[in-house]
Specification:
The chain has 198 residues and is α+β, with helices and mostly antiparallel strands. It is 43% helix and 19% strand.
């Protein structure tokens, strides 16, 4: 089992990164958020999960251990394979997945391509007792409310080439403008203005 890889980033594509380890280029399938943090020619350390099939060995790479743990856990739900697990993490952060499962939030889970109403209900039913509390809320603070607009704005910013870290800062900066019925497009524009000023 390969737990992590460390080496120079040799290439970054739309869906994967190649990391050179001891003269061997390992291709890691990654989410857009993770790929946005990688730069060709720079060193990187990525936690990995290896998926073995009869006809293939696939390495999935993650931004951190938390993302890796959620990736492996959601696959224990029936009907969730590695591709769907990765799609979940491309659309939702690990904490957003935890909040959706803990809060019976079918609507948030169905924003993931490939997850329908029944699939979301099954994932909630099978994972509810095992997925744990959101990491950000586990410090004894007030549990975070599910705010799908945050994930949508982050996806938009990362899709435009900003890093997940920068996107999170911009989202925090505009969160007071969200109100009771957030306008995702307006919040995305406000976040972009924040980033262009930075």
């Amino acid at each position: 089992m390969i737990a992590f890889v460390r080496g120079e980033v040799a290439a970054v594509t739309l869906t994967s990164a190649v990391v050179e380890v001891g003269g061997v280029g390992l291709e890691l399938m990654c989410t857009p958020n993770t790929l946005a943090t990688l730069r060709t020619g720079h060193q990187a350390t990525l936690p990995t999960s290896m998926v073995v099939r009869e006809d293939s060995l696939t390495l999935f790479g993650f931004a951190d251990e938390d993302e890796k743990q959620v990736f492996e856990l959601v696959q224990t739900a029936s009907g969730v394979g590695p591709k769907l697990a990765q799609a979940m993490l491309a659309v939702l952060s690990p904490d957003a997945v935890r909040r959706a499962v803990a809060g019976d939030d079918v609507r948030t889970l169905t924003t993931v391509p490939g997850i329908g109403q029944k699939g979301a209900q099954r994932i909630i039913l099978e994972l509810k007792d095992r997925i744990g509390v959101p990491v950000a809320a586990s410090g004894g603070g007030v549990p975070l409310l599910v705010e799908p607009w945050r994930d949508q704005v982050q996806q938009g910013l990362v899709g435009l080439g900003w890093s997940a870290k920068d996107a999170d800062k911009a989202i925090e900066a505009v969160s007071d403008q969200a109100g009771d019925e957030p306008d995702v497009a307006a919040l995305l524009r406000a976040a972009l203005r924040t980033l262009s000023r930075a």
